[in-house]
Structure formats: structure tokens, C-alpha cells
Amino acid sequence: MSKNIHLGHQAKKRFGQNFLHDESIISKIVDAINPEPGENLVEIGPGLGALTEPVIERAGDISVVELDRDLAHRLRHHPFLAPHLTIYEDDALNFDFAKLASAERPLRIFGNLPYNISTPLIFHLLTFKDKVKDMHFMLQKEVVQRMASGENCKAFGRLSIMTQYQCQVLPVMEIGPEAFKPAPKVDSAIVRLIPHKEIKNPVKDIKALNTVCLAAFNQRRKTIRNSFKKLISAEQLIGLDIDPTLRAENLSLDTFVKLANFIVDNPVDIT
Ligand code: SAH
User: Fold this and answer.
1) Is the distance from the beta carbon of residue 18 to the nearest atom of ligand 1 less than 6 Å?
2) For ligand 1, what atom is nearest to the CA of residue 95?
């Protein structure tokens, strides 16, 4: 039998399928999520139900978003899980998570995410942060490091800034490849994201923050004098009290906010 067959299902690479099978790790992850009865839990990519089942045991009914139609079909006919699931056979990248939330029932989103789409998926999920209580994700360890990294680190970049601007980022634990079938080639980690209730130093437009990050980290070894050339001149950087000879990774989140607000107030046509 192929080592990629798990519970009679052939894992599909294009859907980033690496199924958890280590019971002690599964229970540690569920403890970290800490699902409580009646909460509005939403799982992305339930797969064969490794996390789904113990979460349902603690929380009751949950919603799941699964793209693979074979897996969605299995879940729909699962004797224990099916009665407790609202199944959305859909692409999480385009899914409107807001429709599952209400003011009284903010979302608690979790999942062992498909690693091939994890960064765009995180960016998509962050757009719903006002409806979210918290999120727990299994990601490639390196992605969690990038999310959690502060300035002056190699891993600091657009993902760090966009995530930390909107959420508290708490790495929870690291998990080796052997916990999965098939085993991925990379190490994994669980991260907890808690959206900030209030942003102390807000940007005027979050798109501007993204624009500044893209320009800054497009060629991260360049000085910001060069990388911001089209957006902000060296003189303007000095006017903002920012040293133009620094590199993007030396700038704090607050400095990125300052730069974003500057380009909102001083727009340039870069087309
Ligand atoms: N939660 C399971 C499976 C994780 S593998 C476990 O831990 O064992 C990743 C899961 O995400 C698979 O079920 C895969 O089919 C699903 N998936 C992949 N791309 C998806 C997408 N774009 N939207 C929703 N689910 C997706």
C-alpha cells in the first residue's frame, strides 16, 4: 500500500494534504485551542477529521470549510461527525467567513492549513479579523517564525508587519514531520493569533501599509533610500525622522505605520 494512503484516502499533493495521526500531538493541539461548548468554531481543511473529532467532543457542533470533494463527501456521510458539522465544500481562499459570525458569536477559526496556500490564506483571514475571537493554525515552522519576528531579524517582513499590526502573534508549539501522513519535508508549528480589539497606532488605510511593505521588502538588501524611491524621497524620509540608509528589516512596525500614513497624505502616481 502506498505510504500516502491514510484511512483509505489517497493524499493529494495539490491540496496540501498532510494528515495528522499522532494522538498525543492531536490532543496537545486541541488543548491549545481549548474549545468550549457553544463556541463558534470553524475549521479550515478538516480532511479526515483528526482535529475535527476531538474538537466536536468538547464544543459540540462546528462549521468546516473543505475544498476536496472526496473528503467533503466522506464527512457528509461520517456516522459520528456528520450530525455535528455544517460543511462548506468551498475554497477557503475565497470563502466569506463573515457570514458565519455574529456580534454575540465571534469566530474561533482553526486548522492544519495547506502549506502551499498558507500566506495568501492568512492575508484573506485577516480581512475578517473584526469578526474573529482567535485563530489557531498549523503552519510551516518558518512561516510562524516570519509572523512572530520583530525588526532586525532575517525573518522580519511583510507577513510579520501585516500580522502583528492586526493581531497578537503567539507561537504555541513546534511539531516534527513524523506527526503527519504523509510526512512533510518541513518542520511545522502551531500559532495562536488574537486580533487586537483596538489598534493603538492605526494606519489611515491598511492598503497603504501593504504598499509600503511590498516596496520595502521587494529587495530587502537595498537601503530604503533606494527601495522607496518611487514613493518617498530621501529628504522626505529624513523629514519623518527616518534614516534613509537603513534597510527595511531595521524599521519597526510603528515606522511602517508612519510611512503608510505619509503615502496616504502624499500620494504619488507610480503607474
Ligand atoms: N485537518 C486535517 C487535514 C490537514 S491537510 C488533519 O490535520 O489531518 C489540509 C486540508 O486542507 C486537507 O483536508 C485539504 O483537502 C484542505 N484544503 C486544501 N486546500 C484547501 C482550500 N483552498 N480550502 C479549504 N480546504 C483546503
Assistant:
1) yes
2) 23
Asked whether 264 and 205 are in contact (CB, 8 A), the reply is: yes
Which run of H or of E encompasses 235? helix 234-239
Rounded to the nearest angstrom, the distance between the alpha carbon of 46 and the centre of ligand 1 is 6
**Helix, strand, or coil (residue 72):** helix
- The reported pLDDT for the residue numbered 5 is 81
In single-letter form, the type of residue at position 148 comes to A
Q: What is the pLDDT of residues 188-239, one digit of tens each?
A: 999 999 999 999 899 999 999 999 999 999 988 999 999 999 999 999 999 9
Closest CA to ligand 1's atom 8: 19
C-alpha cell at 270: 507610480
The residue contributing the CA closest to ligand 1 atom 1 is 46
The mean pLDDT of 48-60, rounded to a whole number, is: 97
pLDDT of 186 strictly over 90: yes
Grid cell listed for 111:
486548522
CA of 38 to the centre of ligand 1 (A): 24
Distances in whole angstroms, Cα of residue 35 to Cα of each of 59, 121, 267: 5, 22, 46
Domains delineated in the chain? 4-195 (3.40.50.150), 206-265 (1.10.8.100)
Pocket test for ligand 1, best of 66, 76, 124, 137 (most atoms within 8 A of CB): 66
47 CA distance to ligand 1 middle (Å): 5
Instruction: Please give the span between the terminal C-alpha atoms of the chain, in angstroms, as a whole number.
Output: 55
Ligand 1 atom nearest 17 alpha carbon: 5
Write the pLDDT tens digit of every residue in 117-142.
Answer: 999 999 999 999 999 999 999 999 99
Closest by alpha carbon to 63, among 45, 78, 36, 50? Answer: 45
